[in-house]
Amino acid sequence: MSAEWKCICRNQDECRRYLDQFKVFDHPLKQSTITILESKGTRMKTTNNISESNSGSSSTISLDPLSLALDGSDPLSQFARQDSAQDPLSQMAAEFEGGLSVSASKSKKREVSNLLDLELIEPWAGRRGAILNKYTTNEKLSIVTSFLNGGETIKSQTTMSEKVKYRLEQLDEFEEGTVRQMLDLSQQEYVIKIEQLNHELVQAWNTDQRVKALKIAIQCSKLLADTSVIQFYPSKFVLITDILDIFGKLVYERLLVKAESVRPGSRESAALPENFTPDMVPESAKETCQNWFYKIASIRELLPRLYVEMAILKSYRFLTANEFSSILMRLTHMIRGIGDPLVNVYARCYLCRVGMAITTDREYIKENLNDVLMIYHTILNGGIRTEIAKHRITLNGYVSLFLPALDWLMQGVTILSTDAQLDDILKRCRDKKHPALLMQSIMQSFRSDFIALRAVPFVEILSSISVEGLSRGHLLRILGSILSHTAPPAEQRALVLNAAWRTISSMGNTDEYIQCAEMWAQYTSQHFGLREVNALMGDILYHMTPNRAYERHYHELQVIIDKIVSNAQDIHGVLALDNFLPMLDIFQKESTKLDVCKSILTSYRTASTDSYISDPVVTNALMYISKVLNDSVNALTSEDERRQISNLISHFIRKVDFGRDFEQQLSFYVEARSAFSNLDPVYSTLIHCVNRLATSTRRIVKGQHTNKTAAFVKACAAYCFITIPSIIDVTTRMELYLQSGQVALLNICLQQADSCFEAALNLIPEIPRTYEQDGKIQSSEPFLKSFLMNFLSTLVIVPDNPTQGVLYLLRLLLEAVKKYPFEPTSDTLASIYLHVLDFLSVAAQEVYPYHIVNVISNDELYGSDPKFLAEIHAISCEVCDEVLQILKQLLESNAIRQQSQLALDLFLKIITGADLTVDRMFTLTYNLWNLAAKNRNTLDAKQLQKVLSYTEHLADVTHLDSQKQCLHLLLEKMKSRI
Question: Which pLDDT band, with edges at 50, 70 and 90, does 439 fall under?
Fold first, then answer.
């Protein structure tokens, strides 16, 4: 044995670090300051970092690195000191606050020149994408143009002769004026051809081929007369009008360039101002503008003449300023010549689109709506029905083609309209035959508050009107969506729900019924109590149960459950409703049921932040839902999914609280343990909850257990001890064993505490050397070190088991540590041994630094018995020898820095807790110092000096004369080495 360790008795204050003796008056991160006296050559500046004295003779400057630059001011501070008038952001802030006066030209708001500037209507750009996505087709399309190369037909060639013929046709050069018809185009090919036309138009314009560009615009407009693939017409309208918009923009910008004039005395041309008037336009530009309109007026066909004129309508600004209203009205009347109602409505849509961007007048919009209402009866007449049959589309599909154009007209009418005017439009629309299309457009276009105030009449209209072409359920669904976001007056809400649900419930089609129920479930859960919600779920069960209709509507039913749970004012009340669990039972598909249960628990976690569960019915409902999630976990479940499910179930477990009925609480935890056997994190939550329950019991009895409470806390300890082995992760088991043992010790369950501590130590050899965290491989040695430090702190107050011998748990710890596969170059094992020496030093004291009430620790149990101290000394010698052996291994592996640091650490442990009057220990201590001093270059430059100062501190405060003499002698030898 190299060491002869004998612990000394000392005051607790002697263990404190030397540096702790110094009092700190200023925070170490507080900024230092210097004072600059004002002299003749010093520039004084008033900044945020400089504070002048009252006399003006000195200033204090912060020693901030940024403040030391640029005469005590960093660039950001200099910028902040600049006059606010020079900072654009400061100018804006001052302008809004009224503190900065700016010129009238800058502060004046831009005048509203058109309806779109009011921002009261959704821009067309936001609608076009939805239209292109909705109105698609699988049928073949055709295009007629003279500006694209291609054969008369585009189709697959199967024989060699057809391939040769096709290639020869591709080589033919067609004259520009030759009109070609391309057939059998798919939708994607059609869109590509339209984009090519767009490119050809821009290219022709850029090469000064204005006539060609005009011809392309005309031919594009002609395509809008073709309704052969009628279901694609709205998307075709979007694509063609995009080209026309570009053509109109090119013409307008060209006229702006032509209108530039040279000012007198200047060589540079000046452009027209933004709000120019016709009298500012040169005659040459006006003449060019008139030529454009003359060319367009000469187009023989009505539809292209209308569309091209509408495309360049903005260019009338160069000719007139006050005739837009009459021009728009003239074009409105011209559209009456278009016979096809679908083509007619979309032409009016384009006219209103263009008109809203150039004028604030709304009369022409009203006139367009009036014209639509006049021809509305033709939409579903006999001739149209025959045409629909040819296209093989449903009546509902045909009617929906009108919606994008009709919605734009309706929204245009609502701009700045009074409620009385909207009421008049509503009356005119509902009086039409088959007004379903008009009512849908009204609900999608009118203000939601207008509709909410008239919710009862709207329900009555939708419940009684003929809905040919559109389903009544679809209209009620739209109304339910509106009322879910904008509630009707409180006194009308019940009337609205009752009237709407009578119609919904009477629907024979389950598809329509469930779609309406899906939307009105949100309205019901938002504005009504549990009775109405329960009745809603009951009616849904009544309609969905026959013939297993629910199997076709899992998605709608899932949405209904989500809305009810997420909008519920009392989520516990919803879970306790009679029809709630039966609603869950109709989800027979496992994946769907899993999603529904997960959604319920997620909503519950969000809604129950401050509330706890004590109702057994609610507890059973959540237990059932949680068990569904637990049973879904298998070997193929991802870690993220496991973590998500575990968090949801754990939240539910933590929310169950039966108050002072601790036995019922423990019974719930027992039931939960058997229900959630697939999730280790849930088991961890249960163990924490049971430990908290035992601690709460101790708090209530104030540490003085009765026979009943003592038996209860023992039952809690037994619960934890039995449950922990079911957890797979070794480190989690060790932590839970330690925590459960600490709680058992707190409740004077000594046998249970010993069992937990022993089980934790026996797991040390099973700890894997590495584990994966965040995709990186980590060593488990830091965990082991941290765990054993915590364990040793607890072990100080754990009394020895009389049947196991002195310091049995410590000996078990030392044996288990040797079985762990430490890295050869790791310092973890040495650090653990040093902490064991700290523990032994404390264990040898007459009075321990801390205790647990009613727990007799070893200081009272042994009373500093010589045999007990002899055991401590023997173990200390063994541990010290282990550390010395590690020092030898470090020398052999040439790890000089690690060896020196470990020598210095062991030196500190010896002078703090060992008796230096023992010659061998004194010699060992001096040799350790020599080893550290010899390799001082590998250590921190100030470390040796700090250790020397700490040794002087110990020599001054120790109460043992013999120890004091040894420390002074050691100090003399130490100083001679440095």
Answer: very high
**Residue 901 burial (CB < 10 Å; 0-12/13-18/19+)?**
buried
Compute the residue count for the chain: 978
Q: What are phi and psi of 263, to 5 degrees?
A: -75, 150
Dihedral pair phi/psi, residue 118, rounded to 5°: -70, -15
Q: How far is CA 104 from the centre of its chain?
A: 44
| Nearest alpha carbon to residue 484 among 559, 575, 403 | 559
pLDDT at 156 over 60: no
35 three-class SS:
strand
Structure tokens at 946: 């700090």
The pair phi, psi for residue 20, each rounded to 5°, is: -70, -15
Query: Which residue has 């100018």 as its token pair?
Result: 91
Residue 30 φ/ψ region, left for φ over 0, alpha for ψ in the -120 to 50 degree band, beta for the rest? beta
**Structural contact between residues 198 and 246, judged by C-beta atoms closer than 8 angstroms:** yes
Question: What DSSP string describes 134-199?
Answer: HS---S-EEEEESSS---SB-----SHHHHHHHHHHHHPPPPTT--EEEEEE-HHHHHHHHHHHHH
Max CA-CA distance within the chain?
124
- Residue 62's beta-bridge partner residues? 33
3-state class (DSSP) for residue 751: helix
* 145 pLDDT more than 80: no
Sign for the CA dihedral angle at 957, 961, 967, 969 comes to: positive
Q: What is the C-alpha end-to-end distance of the chain, expressed in Å?
A: 30
Sign (positive or negative) of CA dihedral 323, 327, 330, 336: negative
pLDDT on residue 148: 61
Distances, alpha carbon 812 to alpha carbons 726, 736, 761, 762, 790, in Å: 23, 19, 7, 8, 16
Least confident of 141-155, 411-425, 885-899: 141-155
Can you tell me the distance from the alpha carbon of 709 to that of 900, in angstroms, rounded to the nearest whole number? 54
Rounded to an integer, what distance in angstroms lies between the CA atom of residue 841 and that of residue 231? 90
What span, in angstroms and rounded, lies between the C-alpha atoms of 758 and 741? 9
Any idea what DSSP says for residue 914?
Answer: B
Angle between helices 554-567 and 590-607 (to 10 degrees): 10
Q: Which helix (H) or strand (E) holds 605?
A: helix 590-607
Rg, Å, the chain Cα set: 44
CA distance 366 to 693: 73
Least confident of 62-66, 276-280, 342-346, 874-878: 62-66
Beta carbons of 977 and 929 less than 8 angstroms apart = yes
Residue of 110, 112, 116 lying closest to 354 (CA atoms): 116
Strand partners, 144: 181
Residue 112, token pair as written in the block? 């509203």
Sequence-distant (≥ 6) Cβ neighbours of residue 531 within 8 angstroms: none
pLDDT above 90 coverage of the chain, percent: 51
923 vs 970: CA distance, rounded Å: 9
Mean pLDDT within 739-755: 94
User: How far is Cα 179 from Cα 952, in angstroms, rounded to an integer?
Assistant: 108
Confirm whether pTM is higher than 0.70.
yes
**31 within 8 A of 945, measured Cβ to Cβ:** no
Structure tokens that stand for 539 in this block: 């009616």
At position 68, the amino acid (one-letter code) is: L
Rounded mean pLDDT of the chain?
83
| pLDDT value at 177 more than 70 | no
Predicted confidence (pLDDT) at residue 36 exceeds the cutoff of 80: no
